[in-house]
Each structure stands twice: as C-alpha cells, then as structure tokens.
Amino acid sequence: MFPRLRRQSSSPVRPLSQSIRETSIPTRNPKNDVTPQVYLGHGRALIQDGASSPVRRVNTPPPLGDSFVGSVPAEPITSPSKHAAKRQRLFQRWNTLLPTLFHAYMELMRITNNLREACGLNLESERCNCCRNARELTLKIVRFEKFESIRLWASDCRPAALQLINSGLFPCAPVYPSLAVDIRMLDFVTRLFLRISPNHTAWCGTVEDFLRCQGYRLEGKDPLRRRFGNTLQWFNSLQASCEAYVTGLLNDTRHSLRDGVEEDDSGVGKRQGTIPRSRLECSEEVESEDRDTNVDETGSRKRKRPDDHESRRTDLLSRPSDYLRSRCPICFGGEFDPEKDRLTSDVIVCLDACFTQRHNSQPRDPARQHPDSFFIPQSEVDAVESRVEEARTQAAHATKKPKTSNEQDTEDDELEDGMLVSKSVLDLCGNSFKAAREFLAKVIPKGCDVTALMALLCRHDRPLWVVNMTTPGERQHYAIALLEKLFENIPPFMHVGVLYDIGCHLERSCLKWGLLEEHMDNLVFAISVFHAFGHQWACQLIYHPRKCEGFGLSDGEGAERLWHGIQHLIAYTRIAGYHLRVYTLDMQLHFVNGENLLKMGTWAQRKYKSLCTKRAENKIELAESGKPLSLLRKEWHDQVQTQTRPLPSQSKNKGKVVVEECLRLRRSQSALEKRVKLLQDIIANPNALDYEVASAEVDLPRVLEDYNKLTDKLRRKENALGVSEKRQIHHLGKSPYVNKAMNARALKTRLCERVRSRKFELDRVERSYRKQRSERQLNEHIEDSVKRRDPGIQQLAQKYNKLVKEMKNLIVLRRAPRNAIAPAPIDVSELFKLDIADELWQDIGLDFDEVELGQTAPPPWLADDKVRQGIRAMLELDRCEEEEERLAVERKAMQSWLKEEWNVLKCTIEGTDDADVLHQLELRRKHLCRLCVLWVDALKDFEEEWDEDWGPSVEELEVAREVENSSAVEVMEYEGGDTAFEREIDPVLTEQLETVALSDEYRKSQIDFIDVDL
C-alpha cells in the first residue's frame, strides 16, 4: 500500500523517510530535486520526504496556476542506470575495435600453426610520441601454468588489444585492460563450454586453486571471474566474425561463378588484402542477405515490394538459398529441376517447441548478435502474429452467422473444407494435446520474458531456424513464421513435408483462416511418429508418416533429440542476459550442426541398413499373407474411406430430424415417380415428335436409377424408425421413443468405431515379438496413449445403456410405436474383449443405414487377419521404397555440394594473395578433405554405381585418410645422460676431444708399462 498523502509532515506511525508534507513549488535545484506526489492549487504540492528511487529520474516542469488543480503531471522519463550506460559504452567500443583485430588474429593463427606453437611477447616498451593518448598499462596475464605481470605502452596507433593479440593474449577491456588471458586457454574453454554447461565461476576457481598450489596468486576477492567472462565473451565474437568473413569471401566467389563473371585484377585477391567495412558490419551487426525478409514491420498482410536485388534472390530463385545450403547440405545442397521427376516432398522438416528453455525477466544486456544467427528477429515474428490475428478476425466476421437452436441441435459431424478427417476427430485430437490448445498455459509466464523455444529442423536433425516464444501457450503463429521463412529461401516449385506434433490442427487452421495460402499446394502435413499414437485412429490413418505417402522412414522427432542435446544449457541460459543467451544458443547450434555434418555419412549408412532389414522382414510378411497387392490396395482404400467418414451425433430433436428426412424422401420419391411416368408416356405416344422420344429414351434409365436408389434409402430410413405405413410417420415427429432410439443409434455407431480403432492401435503391441529396449519403450508408450482414452469409450457405453433403459421404460408405459423392441445393454466390463457374441455387435432394435444394402458379412480389412497382415506389410514396403529413393537423392546431393564447395574454395585460393586468409582457406580445405573421407568410406556399401569424383584428388584423399586413421603425436626419445648438454655442444668438437682423450690414455698406458720394466 502506498502511504496516505497528508498536509502535515508529522506522523507518529510513519517513518521519517516516508512522511508527506505540503509545500510551495520551489525553483529547480539540481542538488535536491524531488518530484511532487500531488499538485495542488496556487502553486502548492504534496511531496514525500526521503523519497528515493532505484533509478535516476528527470523531472518535468510542474504545472502552474489554478487550471492544473487535480491534474497529474507527465510520467517522468527514466534514464538508464550508471551500470547499464557503462555496459553500453563498453559494447560500442568493442564493436569499433573488433574489425581492427581481424588481421592480427588470423596472422596469429598462421604464425602459431593454429596455436600449436608458442608465441612470444610483442609489446611496446616505450612511449609513442606521435599520439597524445599514449598510456602505460600494467596487466595480469592468465596462462595454464602461471600468472604473469607485464607493462606496455598503448596509444591510438598501437592499441593495447592489438599488441596483446600479437602476443597470443586477449584483453578483458577494449581500451584500458587490466587483465589478459592466453588465447590457448580461451580456445580450450570455448570448446569445453560447447560440451558442458558454461560455468565461469567453476573454471576460474579451478584455475586459481591450481595455480595457488604452485605459489601463484592474484590479489583481491574473486579477482578473475568477471574479467575472464568478459574476455571469453568478446573472444568468441572475434572468432565468429572471422569465420563469417571467410564464409562471405567464399560466397562472393560462388556468386561470381554462378553468374559467369570472371574476376579481374581488382577481384578477390585485392579485396581480401584489406577487409571491407561493409563486410565487417555485416559480420557483427547486420544479418546476412539470406536472412532478409520482405515482411512489413507494421504487421500488415501486404508485403513490401522487393528491390531488384531481393527480387533476383527470391522471386527468381532456382535453388535453395546459400543460408539453407549451409544449414543442411544434404537436404538443400543438391540440384532441383522442376522439369525432372522429383520426390513427392523435396524436403522433409519437423517442428517442435521446448518449454524448458525459458529465460527469466531482467534488464536487457547490450544487443550482441551472432553474425550467422539461427534466430528469426522478434519483429518478424510479431508481424506474422499480427497477420494471423487479422486473418482470423476477418474470417470470423465473414462467416459469422448466428445459428438457431434447431440448427445447433441437428448439427452432425462433417468434413471441413479441404480436410480428410472429420470435425469430431480433430476436436478429440485437440483435447488430447496441450499444444493444440493455444491459450492453455504450458508454463507459468510470470517472471519470464521468453517462455520457450520453437525450432524448425530438417530430417537429419539439423536446425534451420529458431524463434523465441513469449506466450505461455504454443501459439500457431510461431510455426507459421518458421514455415514462411523456409518458403522465402526455397524455389516456388519445391514441395515440403512437415512433421509436427499437431500437424492435423495446423493444417486445419491454415485452411480455415487462409494462412500460408500461397504455399498450401506445396505443403504436406503429417504427425511425428512418437506423438502420432496420442491422436485418434482416424487421424492416424491420414497423418501418420508410416501411412502417409512421401515421408519414407522419417520420424519427425529430431527436435526432441536437439532439446536433449542442449539440455545442459537450461540452467545457464535461464539466468544469463537476454542477448547473451541467444548468442550462447547460436554457438551451440553451430556446434551441433558441425558435429552432425561429420557423422552424416554414418547416418546415411545406418538408415540404409535399417531399411534393408525392414524390407526383408515385410517381404516375408507379405508373402505369408498370400494376398495380391491389387487386393490389398483396394482394401486399404476402403478401410480409410470407412474409418474416416463422419459419424452421427446425438441431439434432443434427433427423432424429429429423421422423420422430416423421411417425409422429404417420400416427396422426392413421388416427384421421381411422376417423372418416370411422364417419360414412359412420351415414349408410348405415337404422336410425339422424334426428338422428344429420343430425349425421353436417354433420360429414362438415369431417372429410373435415381428412383431405385431413393426408394432403397427411404426404406432403410423407415426401417430405422420401425414403421412402414405412411399414415404412422406423421405422428412420430414428437415421439420421445423415436428420438431416444436415434440417439442410441448414433451413440452405438460412435462406440463401435472407437472400439475398432482401439483394436487397430493395439494391433502393433499384440503382434510385437521383439525385445529391444526401444521397441519395448514404444509399445509402452502406445499402450499408455490408448488406455488413456479408455474412460471416454466406457463413458459412451454408459450413456448408451442409459438410453436403452429409458427406451424400455417408454415401452412399458406404452409410449413407444407398436411392436417396438428395445436393444440389449452393453456390459462395460467386457467391452474391450471384442467377442463376436457381444451385444456391441448385435443390431436388435436398431437398424444402421450405414451398412450397405445386401451386405451381411464384414469387410475383409476388418475381419480377415491375412488381409490386415498384408496391408501392414504393404505400407511398410512402400515407405522403405520411398526411403531408398530419398537416400539416393541425398547421396547425390552430398557429392554435388562437396564438389561445388571444393571448386569455390580452389577459385578463392587462386585469387587470394593474403597469407593470413590463405591459412584460413587451407583449414577449410583440410576440413572438406576430412568430410570427403568420412562420407566416402561410410557410403561405400550403397549398391548403385556412383561418380567417383568428389572434388579432391586421389592423393589429397589418401593424405586425409592417413591423417584421420592414424595417431598424430610427438615422439619423445630418452637415452640417458645429460641430453640438454649434448644438444648444445658442437659434435665435431666433441669428436676431436674424444680422440685427444683416447691418445692421452694410450700414452699414459705406455709410460706405465716402461716404468714397470725398469
């Protein structure tokens, strides 16, 4: 509660620091400037003594005169704290300094052979006379084996940071550093923190304790942690910026080669000699061109008109962008020709959110951004959210029509426009998943400015884009933003398969609200494998990737594996600064992609062996079924059509609706009967014209067919009501028995379908014979998902039994039609045994018009075990064939991408005259050779014939293979003696001395011999 404002300052209960007094508005005193709480008339105001604020405030001029009585002054402007302003200035200085350190860092890496060799100190020991700002600095040096202290002179022409990098050190501050760390240690810690949770406190404490045991110590309490953290942070920025710079040079060469432009004397080489400012700004502050977007920042659905460069890059895109090709060379590195036969889906991606990757609310740190970030800017996400809300609002207004109570009561299940699954099934799927309920909080948003991460990955578990989620629930606009970003970076003819936990609901929303409207023809939605068993069986028939054409053996669970791989960052990123968290995640995602790329050959090999095993097993299953493929495909089509059709629902006017339907059918029957009689009279009339007779002869068979179909349908409807006489049906419109019978019929139809679906879902578990751990876990997950829906099925049976009991009571009270028979109740305890004699399958008292006329036996896909076995094997074989075809395409893409990268690298090396840049390009060359060796050795088991040219020569591959498969160590030889002394002396002199010593020894022995003789 705020303290009560009083005119007198004396208060017996309020502390002096919170007392309020009335005063006249004084002149502004900068030393004692207090903001009034309330402005009174005649220049008076109420102020609070001792009022303090955690931040400095700039007071606005107070209102004067009686006209401002009771008015509230403008809100004070809050200025940043001293600490925040200091951090911002430090951030700007680092951004200015880093571009000047590129050459020094690359030169250091070349001279020291990537830090393998030690680097001596290269510091200025004398004052620079050409600069005014020369200063002498004393720094502490942190190395693995010791602490050191050095002095140096820094100036504008020789900054301290530049001198330290030339000496193999990196400073903690850009201008006045007090500590520097060995770059070897920084590089080691960077690689370590990519594999464990970053912990500066633990590392610095370990270093201090380790060196203290050897007699080294830094003065002060916790003297290392804060400065070491700053040093590591900006060293990582320097590394990433240098990497982005070299990548940019390669992309420049790639674009020149693709455009057919030859480099002249002012081409690549001279441009690499001096680093252009535009490249540096792009590497540190500006996103790459591949990440640009033409989404209007205002959130409007109208897109901005792209300029010539963007139009050439997006509208005329003939292959995926350089950004996507760098993210996954296997998916996007191949050739895509719209004139040639391609896969059903050119690429397969998956979506998922992780609500454990949250971030606590806190003041924002300086906006340090990774030069090659995975994150979509928040402004673009907000723009997509605005468009989604606008589309929903417009669609809601366009279709907004209040339904009458009769329409609401008679509304049955139906197929929505464009969907293959009925509305009721989609609603049940939505109730099973929290992700489908957008406004259901999956996390407590209080105290969090980021509630989750959502990622878009390819089927090789390589992240493409990531967004920060700021809502407590899994809103659909995040998935829409990721998919829009994907389509901006691929040609318009490419087709995409999307695996998502709630893919059915995402497609439903896109069709309902017009989202992704221009891309829907290129999209195929499916459900990730592990989440598919939580959906209804009818939904699985359409969206399960093992039943959906084009997805092969892709599982869509790559995001789950990604979240598991970066779970060690949860604690660190939750309390880190906002932009530091994003930067850390970017570094981790780049590391994940790098490690994944090395293992891609092994991944393809494992997938190929898996599909060969599955194919062999299912060929045996298909042979044991003894059914031809043509029959199995027909039965599978019939099964899908039957089990995905809309089901009848209950309503309080169900009987009245059926009666009205019967009356309508009778009127239609009468009209068709008159039409048949008219056509027959025309044909039999000798005076009719020839064209009239010919027309009647053509129309009569079609009208007779319609009449017979309508008559059969009317008979089934009347049998369902239990009446056949025309005079009785008019009296059944308000019959309570007929209404309950129709509702019981609808309930039983739903109940039978739910029980059948349950049986089909558990079929995998019941026929499972493998004992692998993964198979057991999947079976347990299926059983849990299915049994979680058992109470809903039992509730349907209880509702049905209640209606049956009410129907019996109406028969006893003689309020039912004549000769009416009530159906038997269902034993809920025996519901899932599926005995053929169960009351569930008996139609006494209820006639189902869904059963085709004349059909008495159940269809083979339901009753024949061999047919069901054959259908399962057929679907698995189809997916194996798709997977083999996709693996072949991906194998070609790997080779095509590697050949292009090798050609681009060679051209860049040939046009480069900078030794430091050449060293970085040489590292890229060795990396490509290593990739080629790992991929070629892993893919040698593929049966098809492939081109042997991967880019590198045979000799280069042999060298890389020898390096990869052999140890690289320094051999230490020890023969005893003073080896250090022997290395220092001249070997010729040593030989002469040994000869003289031997001669002296011989002479001495001769003298001794003569003395003895004497």
From TrEMBL:
InterPro entries: KDZ. Pfam families: KDZ. It comes from the Eukaryota. Residues 8-35 have a biased composition (Polar residues). Residues 291-316 have a biased composition (Basic and acidic residues). Residues 1-35, 257-318, 385-415 are annotated as: Disordered. This is CxC1-like cysteine cluster associated with KDZ transposases domain-containing protein. It comes from Dendrothele bispora (strain CBS 962.96).
